[in-house]
Write a structure and sequence with these properties.
By secondary structure, this protein is mostly helical. The chain folds into two domains: 14-157; 167-221. The protein has seven helices and two strands; from the N terminus they run αααββαααα. A two-stranded antiparallel sheet has the order 1-2. α2 (17-47) packs antiparallel against α4. It is elongated and about 115 Å long. The termini are far apart.
Protein backbone atom coordinates (compact mmCIF):
# COMPACT_ATOMS: atom_id res chain seq x y z
CA UNK A 1 0.00 0.00 0.00
CA UNK A 2 2.71 2.57 0.79
CA UNK A 3 4.41 1.79 -2.54
CA UNK A 4 1.14 2.29 -4.44
CA UNK A 5 0.55 5.59 -2.66
CA UNK A 6 4.07 6.73 -3.50
CA UNK A 7 3.61 5.80 -7.16
CA UNK A 8 0.29 7.65 -7.38
CA UNK A 9 1.83 10.71 -5.74
CA UNK A 10 4.72 10.63 -8.19
CA UNK A 11 2.35 10.27 -11.16
CA UNK A 12 0.05 13.11 -10.07
CA UNK A 13 0.81 16.53 -11.60
CA UNK A 14 2.40 19.20 -9.42
CA UNK A 15 0.12 21.78 -7.79
CA UNK A 16 -0.89 24.73 -9.97
CA UNK A 17 0.49 22.99 -13.06
CA UNK A 18 -2.27 24.50 -15.22
CA UNK A 19 -1.33 27.99 -14.05
CA UNK A 20 2.29 27.41 -15.01
CA UNK A 21 1.19 26.12 -18.41
CA UNK A 22 -0.96 29.22 -18.91
CA UNK A 23 2.10 31.29 -18.04
CA UNK A 24 4.02 29.63 -20.86
CA UNK A 25 1.19 30.39 -23.29
CA UNK A 26 1.02 34.01 -22.14
CA UNK A 27 4.75 34.38 -22.62
CA UNK A 28 4.70 32.90 -26.11
CA UNK A 29 1.70 34.93 -27.23
CA UNK A 30 3.03 38.11 -25.65
CA UNK A 31 6.44 37.90 -27.30
CA UNK A 32 4.82 37.06 -30.66
CA UNK A 33 2.45 40.04 -30.46
CA UNK A 34 5.24 42.37 -29.40
CA UNK A 35 7.51 41.31 -32.25
CA UNK A 36 4.65 41.45 -34.76
CA UNK A 37 3.64 45.03 -33.97
CA UNK A 38 7.23 46.12 -33.48
CA UNK A 39 8.38 44.91 -36.88
CA UNK A 40 5.18 46.16 -38.54
CA UNK A 41 5.94 49.64 -37.25
CA UNK A 42 9.59 49.49 -38.29
CA UNK A 43 9.00 47.97 -41.73
CA UNK A 44 6.24 50.44 -42.58
CA UNK A 45 8.67 53.27 -41.88
CA UNK A 46 11.27 51.65 -44.15
CA UNK A 47 8.88 51.30 -47.09
CA UNK A 48 7.98 54.96 -47.50
CA UNK A 49 6.82 58.00 -45.59
CA UNK A 50 3.28 57.76 -46.95
CA UNK A 51 2.95 54.15 -45.84
CA UNK A 52 4.20 55.01 -42.36
CA UNK A 53 2.10 58.13 -41.81
CA UNK A 54 -1.08 57.23 -43.76
CA UNK A 55 -2.11 60.87 -44.17
CA UNK A 56 -5.24 59.81 -46.06
CA UNK A 57 -6.68 58.46 -42.80
CA UNK A 58 -6.48 61.86 -41.10
CA UNK A 59 -9.71 63.05 -42.71
CA UNK A 60 -11.97 60.27 -41.38
CA UNK A 61 -12.84 59.22 -37.88
CA UNK A 62 -15.10 59.85 -34.92
CA UNK A 63 -14.82 63.54 -34.20
CA UNK A 64 -11.27 64.37 -33.19
CA UNK A 65 -10.28 60.70 -33.00
CA UNK A 66 -9.14 60.11 -36.56
CA UNK A 67 -8.33 56.80 -38.20
CA UNK A 68 -4.69 57.85 -38.46
CA UNK A 69 -4.54 58.34 -34.71
CA UNK A 70 -6.39 55.07 -34.16
CA UNK A 71 -3.74 53.17 -36.14
CA UNK A 72 -0.98 54.76 -34.05
CA UNK A 73 -2.84 53.98 -30.83
CA UNK A 74 -3.31 50.36 -31.94
CA UNK A 75 0.40 50.07 -32.64
CA UNK A 76 1.25 51.31 -29.16
CA UNK A 77 -1.52 49.21 -27.64
CA UNK A 78 -0.30 46.06 -29.40
CA UNK A 79 3.27 46.52 -28.20
CA UNK A 80 2.09 47.29 -24.66
CA UNK A 81 -0.29 44.34 -24.65
CA UNK A 82 2.48 42.01 -25.81
CA UNK A 83 4.87 43.18 -23.11
CA UNK A 84 2.14 42.89 -20.47
CA UNK A 85 1.33 39.32 -21.50
CA UNK A 86 5.00 38.32 -21.43
CA UNK A 87 5.49 39.80 -17.97
CA UNK A 88 2.30 38.26 -16.61
CA UNK A 89 3.36 34.93 -18.09
CA UNK A 90 6.57 35.05 -16.07
CA UNK A 91 4.54 35.74 -12.94
CA UNK A 92 2.21 32.82 -13.67
CA UNK A 93 5.14 30.48 -14.13
CA UNK A 94 6.59 31.69 -10.83
CA UNK A 95 3.14 31.11 -9.21
CA UNK A 96 2.71 34.66 -7.99
CA UNK A 97 -0.70 35.13 -6.39
CA UNK A 98 -1.40 38.44 -8.12
CA UNK A 99 -0.51 37.22 -11.62
CA UNK A 100 -3.87 35.50 -12.41
CA UNK A 101 -5.73 38.67 -11.40
CA UNK A 102 -3.50 40.75 -13.66
CA UNK A 103 -4.01 38.22 -16.45
CA UNK A 104 -7.80 38.59 -16.19
CA UNK A 105 -7.58 42.39 -16.11
CA UNK A 106 -5.15 42.58 -19.04
CA UNK A 107 -7.21 40.20 -21.17
CA UNK A 108 -10.46 42.00 -20.34
CA UNK A 109 -8.99 45.40 -21.19
CA UNK A 110 -7.60 43.98 -24.43
CA UNK A 111 -11.02 42.63 -25.43
CA UNK A 112 -12.61 46.04 -24.84
CA UNK A 113 -9.80 47.90 -26.61
CA UNK A 114 -9.69 45.76 -29.75
CA UNK A 115 -13.47 45.36 -30.01
CA UNK A 116 -13.97 49.13 -29.93
CA UNK A 117 -11.29 49.62 -32.57
CA UNK A 118 -12.73 46.85 -34.73
CA UNK A 119 -16.07 48.67 -34.73
CA UNK A 120 -14.22 51.92 -35.38
CA UNK A 121 -12.43 50.56 -38.45
CA UNK A 122 -15.65 48.99 -39.77
CA UNK A 123 -17.60 52.24 -39.44
CA UNK A 124 -14.92 54.64 -40.67
CA UNK A 125 -12.27 53.15 -42.95
CA UNK A 126 -13.86 49.89 -44.04
CA UNK A 127 -10.32 48.51 -44.27
CA UNK A 128 -10.34 44.73 -44.36
CA UNK A 129 -6.78 44.47 -43.04
CA UNK A 130 -7.26 46.76 -40.04
CA UNK A 131 -10.64 45.24 -39.19
CA UNK A 132 -9.30 41.69 -39.44
CA UNK A 133 -6.35 42.48 -37.19
CA UNK A 134 -8.59 44.11 -34.58
CA UNK A 135 -11.10 41.23 -34.62
CA UNK A 136 -8.31 38.63 -34.44
CA UNK A 137 -6.79 40.41 -31.45
CA UNK A 138 -10.21 40.51 -29.77
CA UNK A 139 -10.71 36.77 -30.26
CA UNK A 140 -7.18 36.05 -29.03
CA UNK A 141 -7.76 38.18 -25.94
CA UNK A 142 -11.03 36.33 -25.28
CA UNK A 143 -9.23 32.98 -25.41
CA UNK A 144 -6.57 34.26 -23.06
CA UNK A 145 -9.28 35.55 -20.73
CA UNK A 146 -10.76 32.06 -20.51
CA UNK A 147 -7.38 30.58 -19.61
CA UNK A 148 -6.77 33.37 -17.09
CA UNK A 149 -10.12 32.75 -15.36
CA UNK A 150 -9.38 29.03 -14.97
CA UNK A 151 -5.91 29.88 -13.69
CA UNK A 152 -7.40 32.31 -11.17
CA UNK A 153 -9.79 29.63 -9.90
CA UNK A 154 -6.94 27.15 -9.54
CA UNK A 155 -4.82 29.69 -7.68
CA UNK A 156 -7.66 30.46 -5.25
CA UNK A 157 -8.43 26.77 -4.75
CA UNK A 158 -4.80 25.84 -4.14
CA UNK A 159 -2.79 28.97 -3.32
CA UNK A 160 1.00 28.74 -3.08
CA UNK A 161 2.65 29.04 0.33
CA UNK A 162 3.59 32.54 1.41
CA UNK A 163 7.23 33.34 0.81
CA UNK A 164 7.92 30.43 -1.53
CA UNK A 165 9.99 32.70 -3.77
CA UNK A 166 12.35 33.54 -0.88
CA UNK A 167 15.48 31.40 -0.85
CA UNK A 168 16.40 29.69 2.44
CA UNK A 169 19.45 31.03 4.32
CA UNK A 170 21.50 27.89 3.60
CA UNK A 171 20.76 27.94 -0.15
CA UNK A 172 23.89 27.71 -2.25
CA UNK A 173 23.79 29.73 -5.45
CA UNK A 174 25.27 27.63 -8.28
CA UNK A 175 28.19 29.00 -10.26
CA UNK A 176 26.47 28.16 -13.56
CA UNK A 177 23.84 25.84 -14.99
CA UNK A 178 26.57 23.24 -15.56
CA UNK A 179 28.54 23.44 -12.31
CA UNK A 180 27.66 24.41 -8.75
CA UNK A 181 31.19 25.48 -7.77
CA UNK A 182 33.64 27.91 -9.42
CA UNK A 183 36.55 26.49 -11.46
CA UNK A 184 39.08 27.09 -8.65
CA UNK A 185 37.20 24.86 -6.22
CA UNK A 186 36.68 22.20 -8.89
CA UNK A 187 40.42 22.22 -9.67
CA UNK A 188 41.32 21.95 -5.99
CA UNK A 189 38.89 19.04 -5.59
CA UNK A 190 40.33 17.29 -8.63
CA UNK A 191 43.89 17.75 -7.33
CA UNK A 192 42.87 16.27 -3.99
CA UNK A 193 41.32 13.26 -5.72
CA UNK A 194 44.46 12.76 -7.81
CA UNK A 195 46.62 13.05 -4.69
CA UNK A 196 44.56 10.36 -2.99
CA UNK A 197 44.85 8.10 -6.03
CA UNK A 198 48.62 8.59 -6.15
CA UNK A 199 48.83 7.78 -2.46
CA UNK A 200 46.88 4.55 -3.02
CA UNK A 201 49.12 3.62 -5.95
CA UNK A 202 52.23 4.36 -3.87
CA UNK A 203 51.01 2.03 -1.12
CA UNK A 204 50.25 -0.68 -3.66
CA UNK A 205 53.75 -0.35 -5.11
CA UNK A 206 55.29 -0.56 -1.66
CA UNK A 207 53.26 -3.68 -0.92
CA UNK A 208 54.37 -5.28 -4.20
CA UNK A 209 57.98 -4.41 -3.50
CA UNK A 210 57.73 -5.95 -0.05
CA UNK A 211 56.24 -9.15 -1.47
CA UNK A 212 58.93 -9.30 -4.13
CA UNK A 213 61.62 -8.76 -1.49
CA UNK A 214 60.20 -11.56 0.62
CA UNK A 215 60.22 -13.92 -2.36
CA UNK A 216 63.74 -13.03 -3.44
CA UNK A 217 65.27 -13.26 0.06
CA UNK A 218 65.36 -17.13 0.29
CA UNK A 219 66.82 -17.49 -3.20
CA UNK A 220 69.51 -14.96 -2.37
CA UNK A 221 70.45 -16.84 0.79
Amino acid sequence: MPEAAAKSAAASPPPRAFTQGVGTIFQLVGVTIFLGFFFACCLSALLSRDVATQTSLAAIGWGGYTAQRAVSVCMVGGVTFGLALAGIGLGLQAQRRLSPVLAVLASGCAILFWTVHALFFIKTTGSLVLTTIAIAMSILAALLLGLAVVSLREMRRNPPPIGQEILPPDYKIPYSHLHDDPPELRLARELEIRRQRLDVQRRELEALEEKLRQKLKPSGQ
